[in-house]
Automatic annotation (TrEMBL):
Keywords: Membrane, Transmembrane, Transmembrane helix. The chain crosses the membrane at residues 21-41. This is FecR protein domain-containing protein. InterPro entries: Ig-like_fold (IPR013783). Residues 216-225 have a biased composition (Polar residues). The keyword Transmembrane applies. Residues 216-245, 279-303 are annotated as: Disordered.
Amino acid sequence: MAKRSSRSTIILDWVNVTYRSAALWICGALILIIAGGFYWYHATQVAPRDRAVQAIEEATGLMSKAVALTSSDPRVLEARVNARETIEEAESAFASRDWDRARQAAMHSATLSRKAIDLVEGKNANSAEVRFLHIEGDVKVKRAGEFSWETAHDQMVLNVGDQLKTTSSGSAQLIYFDGTKSTVDSGSLLEIRQLFEDPTTKERKVSERLGWGSVQVSTRKQSGPGSEHEVSTEVASATTSEEGEMKVRYDKDQGVARFDAYDGKWGIKTQESKKALGSGQTVDAYGDGRISPTRDLPTAPRLLSPSDQKMFVFENPAEAEMTLRWEKVAGAREYRLTISERNLFTDPAYQGVIQGTSIAVEGLSVQSYYWKVETVMPDGGLGPPSAVRRFRVTGQSVRDSQDNTPPPLEITDFLLSGPMVIVNGLTEPGAGLWIDNEKIDVYEDGTFYAVVRLRKEGENIVEFLAQDAAGNEQVVKRRAYVETY
């Protein structure tokens, strides 16, 4: 048999392309680039804004209906006042482009208006409820008395006995009728145990039970005597009647619950003992009724750079590198950095433990990202998380390549008052502005106002950074001196 040649076969082929066809192809590519940029902006910016707009419009409509109803009942009058104050809070947050806080306040206002309407119409105004603020990934709900799980959605209303389950790729944020916000982490089970309000005494009692996993609860101060919010597990519970923040973790297999009080005063209780917990403290509770000695939590790391909502413009984002930095925390063993495209940090793009206080990140695709840092304590536990910041990665193809002019940045007033500086200035309307890496609101005419706390005694360098929509930046630095007393 003849031996087959091992030489490679090369095939040459071509097509004829007219100038008109080439022009059409170029136009089509440009359209795709613009459409991609529009989709990215809509998915990462407009959608959260639209949800806030929808919530504010609904709350405003309900408030108008509540005000139009005639009533001298003091409970109705109080609900109206509270609804109006809360809608003002939502509008203020919206003006600051804090879409999440605006939507949360609007939903709380809507709940207050519904209460006023129900009281006037003679309905049961005691029927409190729980609604979804955010849903990410796979989240299921099982109604009280039922056996099947259904997929959660934004319009769902939860009541006593309902259970919420998140998978490893899901998380959810709830808002209760009393203004409490609960964030249910991935791989958790939460049950609504009690929703009670006495319209006469204003006493409110809310109880949620963590079957396994973790939940972070942010409570509001309640006006009615005897009011409290409880988060319980099989082995222990935490209660408060004040404004506060608590992280509860429960390992069902080990029968151990951990209670981290980030803020406020909390009471921890088992069948055998009780313990008071203050801001910055943590304890473990066990199935035999024991509560561990109180330990101090480290402070939350302060993020340094990039500034909140900073936009990075790279010619080739996949090969670009950016550095994330944060302040050192006393007593920290390590730090856990989490980066995600979702604000509840479900299915993170990156999560890792870092020994230092900075890391160079590369290979991020064109997208908006949220990031936070938690302190890893000597015992391996996690301390309070930093504030959440956001940055955007984009390419030259979705920016105005003709705009290479930095935005104007003028500091018109820089008035020192003790350790504070009062600042007034002017930049380009629509530009982002940061002072010492803290995001500052810019009004529609480009003016801004801020009160800045200086970080140390002696000389301070205050840095102003303005960034326009094309990614151009302008930096101005001012010196300020704090007297040592």
